[in-house]
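Render Cytidine deaminase in 3D.
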Amino acid sequence: MDKVNVNSRVTHFKDPGSRHLSPETIKKLIHLSQEAKEQAYCPYSKFRVGAALLTHDNHMFTGCNVENACYNLGVCAERNALSKAVSEGYRTFKAIAIASDLDDQFISPCGGCRQFMREFGSTWDVYLSKPNGSCVKMTVDELLPLSFGPEDLSMKKVFDIPNEY
C-alpha cells in the first residue's frame, strides 16, 4: 500500500483488487478511524467515535462524532465521514471502519447511521473495531437486514386507498 496523496480533506491509497481489501488497507482504515476518534467533540457523553471511509477509487475520508448541547443536533462519526465524501462527489464505497474507546466489545453504528450507510448500498463492508486494532467485518446488509433503500421508492404503490372512517 503506497501513500499517494494527503491533504486536509482526503487521503488516497493504492489497494490491489476491487472487492476484497488487503490486510494492510484494512489495518490503515482502522488506524485512520482511531486517529479520527481523537478529534471527537463529545463533552456530554464522553463517548468518542471515529470513522474512516474508503471509496471505490481508494480515497479515504475520516469523521468523528460532534455533539451539541441540544442533543439531537449532534452528528455521528459515520455520517460525518459519509457527508464529507458525498460533498466531494463520491457516491460508492468499499468499506468503513468505526472506532471507539470500548475495550470489551466492538463498536457498532447506531440505527440512524446504519440507515445512512444503506442509502449508498447494502453490500459494502463495515469494520467494527476495538482500540487494540482487532475488528469484526460485516456488510451494511448484515447490520440492517430487510432494509429500506432508494430502490424501494420506485416500487409499485397502491394509490387508491379507501377512507373507511
